[in-house]
Design brief:
Blueprint (H helix, E strand, L loop, with lengths): L11 E5 H11 L4 E4 L6 H9 L1 H4 L2 E4 L3 H13 L4 E6 H17 L8 E7 L13 H7 L3 E2 L4 H18 L3 E6 H5 L1 E5 L23 H20 L5 E3 L6 E5 L2 H13 L5 E5 L2 E3 L3 H8 L4 E5 L5 H12 L8 E3 L14 H11 L9 H14 L12 H16 L4 E4 L16 E4 L4 H9 L11 E6 H17 L4 E7 L28 H7 L3 E5 L4 H13 L3 E7 L3 H8 L4 E5 L11 H6 L6 E2 L4 E2 L11 H5 L5 E5 L2
Helix pairs in contact: 1-2, 1-7, 4-5, 10-13, 15-19, 16-17
Length: 637
Amino acid sequence: MSSLAQEAPGVRELLMGNEAIARGALEAGVQFVTGYPGTPSSEIVESLAKVANEAGIYVEWSTNEKVATEAAAAASFAGLRAFSAMKTAGINVALDFLSHLNYSGLGKNGGGLVAVVCDDPEGHSSGDEADSRWLASSEGIPLLEPDSPEEARDMTKWAFDLSEEFNGFFLVRSTTRISLSSGPVTLGKITVTGRKASFDTSQCISPYLARLHHSDVLERLDRVAKTFEKSSFNWYRGPQKPELIIVCSGVGTRYSLEAIESLGLGKSVGILKLGTLWPFPVKFVEKHLSKANRVLVVEEIDPFLETFVKKTAFESTVLTGDLKVYGKETGHLPRIGELSPDLVSKALAALFETEYVDRDAEYKQKAGDVAAKLLIDRGVTWCAGCPHRASFWSIKKALQKDGRDGFLTGDIGCYTLDVFPAGDKLTKALHAMGSGAGLATGFGHLSQFGSDQPVMAVCGDSTFFHASIPALLNAIHNKANMVMIVLDNRATAMTGFQSHPGTTFDAMGNTAPAIDVANLCQSLGCRVVITDPFEIKDTTEKIQQLLKEDGVKVLIMRRTCELVRMREEKKPPFTVWVDADKCRGEDCGFCTKSFKCPALPWDIETEKAIINKAVCSGCGVCVDICPFGAIVKQEAS
């Protein structure tokens, strides 16, 4: 489409689910937008940032999700419609504030406040596949879940109205296949509220005293429940007397419709689709479950709906006692990973005792043959020219020379690839953002218990600002022995090069003051060393020296991400080639087996390394790691 902010009511556009969520926010009259990048949610804020000037809204990439929701809440307190987006890991960061916000409400003249969380079934780009719906139920947060991009737009828009009606923030949950798939969306009219921000200072918005506010939360949920019971986002489709009813939500709805069609069960199976998940629409569900005595619950990720369907049945005075509920807890659907139409079809086939084959043998054979011919089997690895490959090479060499069995602790970023097959697996503990530094503060106090292993924490520049600073402060104050390595590639590279406090631009592309990691760390009183990871010998020596010193040391490996550099400079710094006469081939294999740059493949005919010019970025690091000087470079013209 020409612009997400185009005023074109009735026009049909193909939108990604995340774009549809963003469009819904625009149509609702959003004015203030925040977030922290993370797949599968990144495109929501990115889409709004691109049209910020056109739409007259404010958009920022915040330091982390807690700050993002706090900033959005401030705008809401002042009467504006505000919005914040994050992935499933991010809501854990934000929850400390959000749980309090749910108690306090939005104040006297609060504008609508909507938060979107995108769960990641299968953990495609996450450290877990946690289900955010439980947080909504445990914290008493009203929750909506769309089943398509079209509904994502509609629900987001409605959530703002609900937020203002009930004076509390509302949560919209998406999952990977909704967020990142595309579908037709009919555009509505963009609302321009023209609201001026004004905070009423006669009030104090606070969750204290908690017990009194808890009762407010419960009373609000009771009122929201009445609205949810009548919502058009909940519907039943199918025969009046089905043999089985599928209760579903989100992408499970589309999979269920497809499964029923593929098995020809349209006259036997009904679908009870739920879009308002919490408070659970008990009366609506009870009414329709009375049509059958068998239920299959289709949902991602946990048996959340399954639990509350069973609770509804157990407490009901309408439903018969022989209602049987099938789903994840009965083994008809898996409790881990993503759903698919085939999984739903197999579950239905088992319940109707019919045979189901997802693909015939001939099709599988042909698909396997095509895949073998066309697909290249390669592991996940860093890009050619990535500074992280050089950084980890120097870290490995320094640890080997130190000889005390030292190791790395880490977190989430491109540098996580160290633990994959193409990496050297130097990182021995890998958890949440900032956890590498936090773990290192603990390991850095174990000398009194007999340990002499040096520990280094590694994090990216965006992660440093997001969650590593508190751990660094802790290490300095408590005199831990550790090296914090900040891989400063001047971008939030893993999720799409978004801005962070260390970049010179903000989410909307405006010039912004960059906070220098080195200056910040020096102001805290710890020793700071800066190195260029492409200078292998110098970097290795600096790491060796820091490992010998006591206290907290910060090593900043500063080199711009190759994808960013190439975009800016448009050409490689060096032309690189292999001198076949000097290459030792199988007697060495140092570059292809150890350094593992994808631009350094093995030539089967010559049995020597070669440079793949189509892939090579011209960084020239391989020249320094070749022990026989067989790789040569010269400055590119």
